[in-house]
Amino acid sequence: MSLTHEPLAGYEVRGRGARLLDRANSLLSSRAAFGAVLVVFLLTGFFFAVTLHVPSSAAPDEIRHIGNVLFYAARPWTAGPFLHDVDASTLKLGEVTRFPAYLYYYLMSFPARAASGIGLSEEHVVMVLRCIDVLAAGAGLCALRAVFRNAGIPASIGLVATIVTAFTGRSVWMAATVSYDAPSMASFFLFAAVAVSVARGGGLRALGWLVVTAMLVLMLKYSNAPLVLAGAFFALLFRYRTDGFSWIRHPIRRAVNGFRERPARSTALVVIGAVLFALVLERFGVNLLVYRALNPDCTELHSRASCMQFDIFRRNYNATRIHDLAAADGSLEPFHPLGFLVTWATTYFRSLFFFWGPTLPWRPNLGVVLFGATAVIAAVVVAATQLRRVLRSAGTWWLAIVPLAYTVAVLCFNAATAVNLRQEYAFSGRYLLPVLPMAAAVILLGVRSWLRQLHGRVAAIAWTVVIVVGVALFVLYNPISAFFPYADSSAWYSGWARATLPRWLTGVEG
User: Fold this and answer.
1) Which residues contact 126 (CB under 8 A, 6 or more apart)?
2) pTM above the 0.90 mark?
């Protein structure tokens, strides 16, 4: 059996049931099925791009991203991406002169200029930028397909994991907002596709692309550094366990041969790598050398009074002061680890699958939340019993251990914030989106392995339950169902949506 077209039922479900499962497997393994998923995702993303209020409550910092893009768009076309001696009033957008993730703002300023140049209003310019982000997210799904293919995941399992990712509410809503999250996640999927290739036997060219894609991820979102480091580390570790250092011997001779055999690809690797290395050196190298930080504190470059214009700096500064004063007078609330874990898990789950606005009330249906949480926990428990059967290659090990390591890192970061500030800053399921598809693929492999061990009527019942639960989850948790029943205020919607969408859908007057 091939890794990309393996019967789901095996010999455990016989007769008509087995034929139906194998037919479904063939359908899910087809290119047409992936194409249909991609098209539906793009259409859904475009719909939300013009439906969500500008700026969107889905991304609490979208207004800052829009402001930075428009700030670059207001500069001359030839001004370049580097900023010097900007006015202190720009600090309401954040510290812009040494901010690591400036590349997204600079690149998006070109379509913003073009849209403004043809007379579009600012709201419509934002919608154009959102649609570009949706296209970037769609490209990310294509890269994700390559991740699963390179990892040796059956195509049907890979497609279901892609569906889980593409139609998780936060994926679509994040893609339909102006933010570097969607492009950076797409670049991470590209990095992951190369990483699993290296882990499973890729050569020096794959190693070169690993470095190049890692730099691209960092330039789009520097806070992905732990994810990139974990991905590269485990890719190289798994490769070392298989081949030691033999696969990187004679690098110069092999590089020369590579140029002779594939001059175009080798030249592209060198040119793209050189450009990205120069950008990384200018931003991260200088920041580390001069300010000893990847992202310098605002007060390293400006006065504290000026930095107080930046809402995140002001929030953190005030929270630190309040914490220190409470600690000094003995009124500081104790840190409760168990309560923190419960709050962390519930907040991440709800904000991953439901629209979680920062200012408007949002209370997803408790029954829907409990049903989804129970299904996820059950799937994780079942998959955990099958890990010895599932984790048989470097590719599946990579897909399992990188999400685990990254999730633990995010948990520790949030715990440190809770301990040091007694605050729940950066508690959002969107931070787990980059590793969601990998975790979903491993869990699906585990559930399938468990199902394949069942026999006769038990197997038929189990398959039926799994399929029914999966369909129910999709119906309840897709971006449409997880948004409109709860978004019943006009503050959620753009002018177009209020004027066009029916009241029975939005719950508001036009």
Assistant:
1) 54, 55, 66, 178
2) yes
Query: In degrees rounded to 5, what are phi and psi of residue 105?
Result: -60, -45
CA distance 21 to 464: 11
Token representation of residue 284: 């991260």
Angstrom distance (rounded) from CA 271 to CA 212:
10
Which has the minimum average pLDDT: 11-15, 27-31, 106-110? Answer: 11-15
What tens digit of pLDDT does each residue of 216-239 get? 999 999 999 999 999 999 999 999
Q: What is the DSSP letter of 432?
A: G
C-alpha–C-alpha distance, residues 14 and 449, integer Å: 17
* Nearest-angstrom CA–CA distance, 409 and 406: 5
Distances from the Cα of 32 to the Cα of 22, 28, 37, 43, 138, angstroms: 17, 9, 9, 16, 15
Angle at 397 between CA 393 and CA 399, to 5 degrees: 120
Nearest 5°: the CA angle 383, 343, 58 is: 90
Angle made by CA atoms 338, 340, 343, in degrees to the nearest 5: 110
Contacts of 232 (CB under 8 A, 6+ apart): 195, 210, 214
CA distances from 397 to 8, 9, 207 (A): 21, 24, 19
Enter the DSSP assignment of 289: I
